[in-house]
Here is the input.
Amino acid sequence: MSIIQSIVLSIIEGITEFLPISSTGHMILASSLMHIQESSFVKTFEISIQIGAIMAIVMLYYKQFLKGFSIYLKLGIAFIPTGVLGFLAYNFIKTYLFNPVTVSISLIVGGVVLILIDRRVSSQESKTVELENITYKNAFLIGLVQSISMIPGVSRAAATIIGGVFNGLDKKQAVEFSFLLAVPTMIAATGYDLLKTPVVFSHQDIILLVIGLVVAFITAWIAVKVFLNLVKNYGFKYFGYYRIIIGIIFLLFMIK
Here is the structure.
């Protein structure tokens, strides 16, 4: 993998990780388009740069994490369904679902769902005054919906946002809870993936990783800021349109 390819993948990771358009799906599709050879290092690189995106959320929302222990407990409860499913179905998902066709179909289906819920969420008022006051039951249910995102192309962000909307959060709170829940989910997923794909780094590999982490951090920081403004002003429907268009394009590309 070249430096240019590593930068492109890191930009894609940073931009898409917290948007409801599937970072994993875009990484799979981008790697396929750039003809990046699958290797232990490439797998580790694609996993490791998520740490840069995670750190952007920690830095942006550090005040939420300092408000008290209850938010950690609720995020932990929300993480349980994904953690259990990920542990049990890891090999099946990696073997049979990590392919461009699955991603394309998931993008299209998820796009339709986002468009359908957009009208509902546009006028929905939150049942929770402060995000940290979300109930344990609702936190678990949001986490249950998030577990669907184990299918590549579904998007963890899209799943948790949809779960938040159907559990009484307004669109801003649904997005922000999705951001917070990303931290334990991505740390666990990244750590487990790294254990499953051990690799010895060369000097060049370390340089690529450092570049990737920095680029993913910067682009994720910017993407989160922009995303909140887009959701506030335009809702989710345009992300749904984007998912459908990109899914159809790549599906046609793969068929050819």
